[in-house]
Amino acid sequence: MLYVVIIYLWAAILLYLLLGGADFGAGIIELFTSPKNRKRTRKVMYKAIGPVWEANHMWLIITIVILFVGFPEIYSTMSVYLHIPLVIMLMGIIARGTAFTFRHYDAVVDDMQVLYNRIFVYSSFVTPLFLGIIAGTAVSGKIDPHASTFLPAYIYSWLHWFSISVGLFTVAICGFLAAIYLIGEAENEPDRLRFIRKAKQMNVAAVLSGGLVFITAYLEKIPLIEWIFGNAAGLSAIIAATLSLVLLWYLLARGKTRVLRLLAGFQVTMILFATTVRHFPNIVMLKNNAYLSLLEHSGHEKAINMLGMALLLGSIFILPALFYLIYSFQKKDPEKLRPSAKG
């Protein structure tokens, strides 16, 4: 049952990156859109994420619950030593959701709309930035449980170039996913071409920031290159991601967008797999070559068994409802499709 829980943990992290990441990416796309096109971008964005944006955070909640119940030592270590970036990320989620709601449903359109827009786009950038910083810190080996002063314990553990570069890479990935998803929601050719350009720009940003991740990992003596390229599974995943990237650019150039979402999701899945498979089951790297393992630092067996059963049973009810929610909002309005009567 322990491996069932671990699979759900990995899947929840992946789905939050794919779905929640695209959600954040919509705000990132708006942030880097010219003022004259922002209104049109918002219209497409509301159609794409408006009905289901809150459901995306379900994956984050599942991740937190799995760590809290199934791996309490890992949860407490990250909560204590990374409480500052965690709080910033959570504040970004709250600020972003609040601004999204108020700017869309506020009964009075006034200067406050400007404030709502700024909060939304900047929190859309800050939230995945610190999500990436937390992920980078978890594998950086910078967390020092034996630190006796504030700065080494709670600041230097996450405020370094490697974690920041991972944060920037996460921002670029979110923007790329959002642009790819929004291409299929565009109702006219100018918007579709604009989102294609954004997808290309964000993909270039992801490649550049990904290169920065490797450079900072090398400078800070983090064995990222060995983790990814030093084993057949990781190397195969990177090759698959690269080949799918070439295919994605080819389809973009040809104007074929039907399978772009699947390709983008596949790339992100392969990247996450490549960066985690080598050091599994170690999920948090501590200073002086210590680590926290999903196998060695799991909770009580009874707690793991109950958690696994809850996840399996919950999937039976939650997943069909989620798929139906997405399906129902993707259906075309029959009233809009009905020809208007004349005369």
TrEMBL record:
Bilayer-spanning residue ranges: 6-32, 53-74, 80-99, 119-139, 159-183, 204-222, 228-252, 259-277, 303-327
Localization terms from the record: Cell membrane
InterPro entries: Cyt-d_oxidase_su2
GO cellular component: cytochrome complex; plasma membrane
Main localization, broad class: membrane
Record carries keyword Cell membrane: yes
UniProt topology in membrane: Multi-pass membrane protein
An annotated Gene Ontology molecular function: electron transfer activity
GO biological process per UniProt: aerobic electron transport chain
Keywords recorded for this protein, A-Z: Cell membrane, Membrane, Transmembrane, Transmembrane helix
Family as reported in the entry's similarity comment: Belongs to the cytochrome ubiquinol oxidase subunit 2 family.
Name by which UniProt lists this protein: Cytochrome d ubiquinol oxidase subunit II
Organism the protein comes from: Arcticibacter tournemirensis
Lineage, uppermost ranks: Bacteria, Pseudomonadati, Bacteroidota, Sphingobacteriia, Sphingobacteriales
